[in-house]
Amino acid sequence: MANLKTVSKKSKAQSMGMHTEVLTGRTQQKFFNPDEAENFYYFGTYDVDFNKRTELDVKDMTAPEANKEIDNLMSQGYGTIVIKNPQGKHSLGVGILNKLNLIFEGSLGYFGMGSCDGPIVRINGRVGWSCAENLMAGKVVIEKNAGSCFGAAIRGGDLICKGSVGARTGIDMKGGTIIIGGDAGAFTGFMMQRGRIIILGDVGINLGDSMYDGTIFVGGEIGSYGSDAVDAELTKSDQDWLKRKLKVAEIGENFDVSKMKKIVAGKKLWNYDNLEPTEKKGAI
Amino acid sequence: MCGIAGLIHRGKSSNVGSELQGMLQALKHRGEDSTGYALYGDTDGKNFIMRFKVGENVGEGSSSVMEDVSVYDERKKIVDQTLAEMGAKVVKEERTLPYSLRYELDYNVKDLLEFSQRIENIPGVEILSMGKSLEVIKDLGNAKMVCDRYSLDKVVGTHAIGHARMATESGVDIKSAHPFWGYPFSDVSVVHNGQLTNYWNNRRVLENKGMRFMSECDSELIAVYIAEKMRDGATLEEGMKASLTGLDGVFTYFVATKDSLGMAKDTMAAKPLVLYESDDLVAMGSEEIAIRSVLPQEIDTYDPFDGEVKVWQI
After folding, report:
1. Average pLDDT estimate for A224-230
2. Contact B175, B59 (CB under 8 A)
3. Backbone angles phi, psi at A196, to 5 degrees
4. Other C-beta atoms within 10 Å of B282: how many?
């Protein structure tokens, strides 16, 4: 295991987007070796086969029991897991740092799919507050509506809700894409720092309030703009990207993106654009 | 944190006592200092039902004190005497607990305000609810404990609202527990999840207008605020809409009347609410698991938006 205190391949680390400050601590030393970048994996992840499929009925399980069983099934190589009877339970599917095809046949409560990195998830129901909070990579599709704080602080991946969402969607988001097929509530994009939000329907008051960076696209009416949020020109490349994204998201493929509004931050922050240390990702 | 739940059956009655117990018990992790029910039962509509208390069930943090049962007996006697003086005949009397009573009153009331003031002028006595359908039952403990204590699981009616409380703004006692009766209006009750930050300003104004507060719980303000609007001629929905700007803070609250159920959400949508709506049933709660206790099958639910007010009729 390399000692990051003596890493000499600075340029390689930088090209990978890694921060080059001197780091200490066992966690960083264990996980972040630029020489092993191609084989990078999280501790405790599994080699799963998407064609190996199973079902898990969580009706009589607590959330920790259900999550442990998902982990157990992944350890057995199951790459496609169908969860039956989630019945609005909180905190289901959290902390999955693995490639996985996960399908929920029903609705989730609060904090569903939080802090995940990699899984492809379809929820054939609704989700409560803070769905997919801190999502780092992967794709989460919700077939119905979602509660407030949808995609809070996500750093990557695609988060798609085919219905409507509550307030503060994408609050504090640092990357990734959030796509809403219906309407969104107040304070959408509140304090967002990076990434993109697409809303095909209407959006409530204080859109993009206190946003640092990132982009919001709105297809419907805007209740009001928040502090620091301003209109920007919708470019051809924006429209091309929107078309591609909506097609991939299985949502609004025929939507007239040329009429969408583009909202960005109206302020410039100093010393903001330094990349977040990639090393932190592994410590989460 | 607190959790709230409510449901209304449209065009039929159901076992709302048991249903609300299930909803509130599913929310017990949001607070179980006290639990309260406002049940709108099937009655013949002839008599008033008065739920009142002559003492407290006191938990940690309360400023109230436990008293001897003889004190409760003495207060009850004065209540009986006062009712007789006002010409109210007690048709049926139930004393579920030493401090908690339910009277059915044959009384041609002209002014519930005057009636309530006379009863509540008796030290230690508080009317929890007054109406021809509404019964407010609240006590310390979680939903099941309160339901069992008061045998609420058999109550049949059209609609109900309830509250699972984590005490933050005031003590752990019955007087601070929800629901609050919309004094002095017959059959009006309120439950609230959130914090109101202009409580004292509003309270001073409302008290100067002759409204009454029984606790220092900020949530009571909602009941009094709407009651005052209705006293001035506003409809329930108009009163609720006025509250969106008149009340400062974060809130989701429910109001119920004899034949309707309403919800309001503050303009920042800071407090949760999940809603299920069909032709024959509306069920809502702070979390979806509350609704799932009465509708375990897959259903379509949604979060009402910021500043939204909705009212449903039975």
Report:
1. 93
2. no
3. -135, 145
4. 19
